[in-house]
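Field guide to reading this record: the first block holds the primary sequence, the second block holds the structure written as discrete tokens, and the final block holds curator observations. Each block starts with its own label. This record concerns Septum formation initiator family protein, catalogued under organism Hymenobacter metallilatus.

BLOCK 1 — SEQUENCE
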Amino acid sequence: MSASELVERVPRFLRSFYFLAGLAFLVWMFLFDANDFIKQYDMYAKWKELNTDKEYYLREIDKVKKDRAELLSSPELLEKFAREKYIMKRPGEDVFVLVPQEKE
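BLOCK 2 — STRUCTURE
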């Protein structure tokens, strides 16, 4: 079988210029372009991760806003928070911070 006979056995639409040009374009776009499928998939995965982070931070913001509203509404809670978190004290008080011993 010669090369011309092999070419004749291929259907006519597969030998057309437009089909070959379109196929070359698709191969270029899928494999060699700056925005190929691999990069698109990586960007999509990053986008999903960032959306998950966004939801987490929005929940944390709501939680902090709620805590802030509670602290600002009650002077007793504000004092308790300041004493526990920032080890603040009243004038004339002594504060002792107990640190647990490390086990060897």
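BLOCK 3 — OBSERVATIONS
The chain has a mean pLDDT of 87.
Residues 63 and 69 are 10 Å apart (CA to CA).
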